[in-house]
Design goal:
Layout: H1 5-12, E1 16-22, E2 27-32, H2 35-40, E3 55-59, E4 73-77, H3 83-92, E5 97-100, H4 103-114, H5 124-138, E6 148-151, H6 160-164, E7 170-174, H7 177-185, H8 188-208, H9 221-239, E8 247-251, H10 252-257, H11 259-269, H12 276-284, E9 290-291, E10 294-298, H13 301-314, H14 316-332
Helix pairs in contact: 4-5, 7-9, 7-13, 8-9, 9-14, 11-12
Length: 342
């Protein structure tokens, strides 16, 4: 295996992306990407697999461990709070390789959720072994010294401590509860997505808050949005403690108010050179005027604020009820009082 050219290349070359896993057959789909593919992709999911992208299923056991790849840094978030924008700005101002929502992280999160249950396909030892493998694969670059920055999907925060380890650096993006509710209500697609994810988040919240005195069916739609915020914030509170210097918590609304200084702080946190000219150019360029997940569409901080204000005006009573629901839980579970509920 050590003399196999593919094995040697795979161990060090980011162009061979372990894209997704089939747990039932214990196989991994390997896709062939260029660095431009990584930088352009908003999501490393099924949308990546166009006809021009070569790929092949391979047995997981046939894939080698990475050869001395550095550990990737991570961007975590609660969803719809600018994580893709942050990833694009960091990539624009540094040599970082952006990996946005790689699907293998979802596989690890699914396995971790069931690792102590009888139906788990992996043993705890196999989970730890493959966790280390995946982290090594995601840390590879296209040239020596290039660092990978992985933007995870919001549900991956549940295993953030597994991914970063004791020394890894992470950026965590969030907003206050009112701004989150307004943001979700402002978009039909974001509302539909949040409601679809509500059952899984309610299940996770019930683990985080023992004897949770509510069921999902009791919650009206806007309160389900508030529950989703609470689930992700409480998850980050456990997995990414803000008191640890390796975890940089950033309010996205504050970032939009002063993007240049926010971006400089994020570069510094990740150990990247802080080049003010590059930062200013990135802020002045098209990235801040595009919808980061679909750059062909225009979007701006001003438009975001307008949509939030309209949502607040249209749903004021339901928003107040949802905030009150979270505040009542914060009285019962006092550690939640540190979260930005207002």
């Amino acid at each position: 295996m050590a003399d196999d050219p593919f094995q040697r290349r795979f161990a060090a070359d980011a162009s061979l992306l372990p894209h997704m896993a089939d747990l039932a057959s214990d196989r991994v789909l390997v896709a062939l990407l260029t660095e431009d593919d990584y930088r352009a992709a908003s999501f490393l999911d099924q949308r990546l697999l166009t006809d021009r992208v070569g790929r092949e299923w391979m047995a997981w056991s046939a894939l080698p461990d990475p050869s001395d790849a550095p550990r990737a840094d991570f961007i975590f978030h609660i969803g719809h709070v600018g994580s893709t924008l942050a990833s694009r700005l960091l990539a624009e101002t540094s040599d970082a390789l952006p990996l946005r929502e790689p699907m293998l992280l979802r596989t690890l999160a699914q396995v971790a959720e069931r690792i102590d249950r009888p139906e788990s396909l992996w043993s705890p030892d196999l989970y730890r072994q493959r966790l280390a493998q995946v982290l090594g694969w995601l840390g590879r670059g296209f040239r020596p010294g290039q660092r990978a920055v992985v933007k995870a999907s919001s549900v991956i925060t549940a295993i953030a401590d597994d991914l970063t380890g004791p020394d890894g650096r992470a950026l965590f993006l969030y907003v206050s509860l009112p701004r989150y509710i307004e943001t979700i209500l402002a978009g039909e697609a974001s509302m539909a997505e949040t409601l679809a994810q509500a059952p899984a988040r309610m299940a996770r919240l019930a683990v985080l808050l023992p004897e949770l005195p509510h069921a999902l069916w009791q919650l009206p739609p806007v309160t389900r949005v508030a529950m989703s915020w609470l689930c992700e914030m409480a998850t980050a509170q456990r997995a990414l403690p803000a008191v640890e210097p390796r975890n940089l918590w950033v309010d996205f609304e504050a970032m939009l108010a002063d993007p240049a200084n926010a971006l400089a702080a994020q570069c510094g946190h990740f150990g990247m050179a802080v080049d003010r000219a590059q930062i200013d150019a990135a802020i002045a360029g098209p990235i801040m005027r595009q919808y980061s997940k679909a750059p062909e569409h225009g979007y701006s901080p001003d438009l975001r604020r307008q949509l939030q204000s309209q949502a607040a005006a249209d749903h004021g009573a339901a928003i107040a009820e949802a905030i009150g629901w979270v505040e009542a839980l914060a009285k019962r579970y006092t550690h939640l009082a540190d979260l930005p509920i207002r």
